[in-house]
Amino acid sequence: MFKKLRVFGRTRDLEQQIDNFLKNISESAMLFRMAVKEYLKHGHTDDYRSMLDKVNSMETDADNLRRDIERELYLHTLIPESRGDVLGLIENLDQLLGLFQGALWRLENERPQIPSKYRNDMKRLSSHAVKSVEAVILSARAFFYSPHSVSEHNHAVMFYEKEADKVGSNLKSELFASDLDLSQKLQLRDVAESIDNIADWAEDVADRLAIYAIKRTV
Amino acid sequence: MFFLTSGLFLGWALGANDAANVFGTAVGTRMVPWITAAIITSVFVIIGAIISGGGTTHTLGKLGAISALPGAFMTAFAAASAVYAMTKAGLPVSTTQAIVGGIVGWNMFSGSPTDLGILTTILSTWFICPVLAAIIAVIMFKSVKTASRMNKIHLLRADAYTRLALIAAGAFGAYSLGANNIANVVGVFVPAKPFSSVSINGIEFLSGTQMLMLAGGLAIALGVMTYSKGVMTTVGSNLGRISPIAALVVVTSHSLVLFLFASHDLEQWLLSHGLPTIPLVPVSSSQAVVGAVIGISLVRGGLSSIKWGTLGRIVLGWVVTPVMAALVCFIGLFILQNVFNQVVI
């Protein structure tokens, strides 16, 4: 009886950890959007730096949570049929945090000058990338609770990824058609790509989730 | 006691092979550790055999009342040989079909008439058993599918519930296996009464027949503990890839079918309500499992997903196993009577 109660206690703890992990990514996405907005508006500021620090700390927390989840799943041979998929999902989602960090560190280290005419597109690009991540988080939650509804959220991921691609592509065309120095063009292109990569990765995770969900349906 | 060894060997073989039908899918999908499965199976097989083993034993007794121990020995030995040969040949085998063949072989040798009514009833259950298991599996699988769509349960919690349900269904399956299949193991020894009853303070604790069933149950448990590990872990690959939920449906369908064909209480209840009864006949647990898996395959992928080869091998088993057991029994009884001068009739 006590063992049975412990089984459910352990399950609850692990559910909580997975939930916290997903929350972490959602919050990092919001911070990312705010940090990019701040940079576009005011350049490199203390606020920007503080938001980057928060994202860094969330990335560390997420790494710890990921390790704990992995250890628990293996130690107690939980969800043997879906374990590989869940671990894969968590590792892939964790990479999103790495991409947020990478894009923000690029702005922090390189401190590129972004001409005002490109700022709106940069803002839209980051907004679409964040929306694609928010949708993939919803999709991941659905995978745990109702795998049948994963596809509904995946549609949103695909939509925002396409929008991000469109904005990113236009932005790059405009950059290279401009009179900016080649070095600045290349630098801004890299900034745009580092943001666009987030949406691309969210789409990749969504594709994998679609397969995991099919496997999970009875 | 020597004459009982063939029955105990048959029990061991049943434990080694058929425990996989109860927990194989759960162990194969790594939802339940083998040692947990083995202990639960052993305990519940013995309980089922002692409490509810009487019904099917009675039916087998009506097919052929073997009153001499050497005769019972050879009948069980013939059945065990057929099981061994069929297993070696890689064909799905049922101890039920083997023991029925053995009894018919004894009837032929002793000149006793085989009750065709009982024989027909038993033969019809061989067909009904997998079909019924398939029907139950289809209904359960569709219900579980609908329920899982309606209730949003976290993957981890669903996993924990499934584990508990698999253990409960496995315990029920082991009980039903003991109740239904103990007749195959020791049924032929019942008329020979090799054990006397056990009394404590003048109160009968276990009758002679129950003692016999306890011995059979222990033999099955020994088979489970010593030889079922490999069979359980490979059963998944024989049945194809199966999800834990499907495994639960398979085990529950199998257990229900075995229970339906073994429950004396259910028979009484049906009789008291004027309903047609289900014959208390030992059925094949392997074929119940295959029937359930086919049922699920039908729901999932239609007719094309059925392994017709597996079905064909089952039908082949229906014919080859009893015929082989009958022949071995007939020849064995002849040798036992004429070479070893044993009373076999």
Structural write-up:
With 218 residues, chain A is an all-alpha fold. Chain A has one domain (2-216): Phosphate transport system protein phou homolog 2, domain 2 (Methane Monooxygenase Hydroxylase, Chain G, domain 1, Up-down Bundle). Chain A has helices spanning 2-42, 46-75, 83-110, 116-145, 150-177, 182-216. In chain A, helix 1 packs antiparallel against helix 4 and helix 4 (116-145) runs antiparallel to helix 5 (150-177). Chain B has 345 residues and is an all-alpha fold. Chain B has one domain (2-338). In chain B, 76% of the residues lie in helices and 2% in strands. Chain B has twelve helices and two strands; from the N terminus they run αααααααββααααα. Chain B has a two-stranded antiparallel sheet. In chain B, helix 1 (5-28) packs antiparallel against helix 9, helix 2 (34-52) packs across helix 7 and helix 6 runs antiparallel to helix 9. The longest helix of chain B is centred in the middle third of the chain and has 35 residues, at 116-150. Chain B is globular and about 70 Å long. The model of chain B has no long low-confidence stretch (mean pLDDT 86). The chains are: A mainly alpha (218), B mainly alpha (345). Chains A and B meet through helix 1 and helix 4 of A and helix 6, helix 7 and helix 9 of B.
Compact description:
The complex is a heterodimer of chains A (218) and B (345). With 218 residues, chain A is mostly helical.
Secondary structure class of chain A reads mainly alpha
Radius of gyration of chain A: 19 Å
Strand order, largest beta sheet of chain B: 1-2
At CATH level 3, the topology of chain A is: Methane Monooxygenase Hydroxylase, Chain G, domain 1
The biggest sheet of chain A amounts to: none
Note the gap between the termini of chain A: 29 Å
Shape of chain A: elongated
Q: Count of DSSP E strands of chain A?
A: 0
Query: What is the global morphology of chain B?
Result: globular
Q: What value does the average pLDDT of chain A take?
A: 93
Counted beta strands of chain B: 2
The DSSP helix count of chain A reads 6
What is the total number of structural domains of chain B?
1
Sheet-strand content of chain B, in percent, reads under 5%
Computed structural class of chain B: mainly alpha
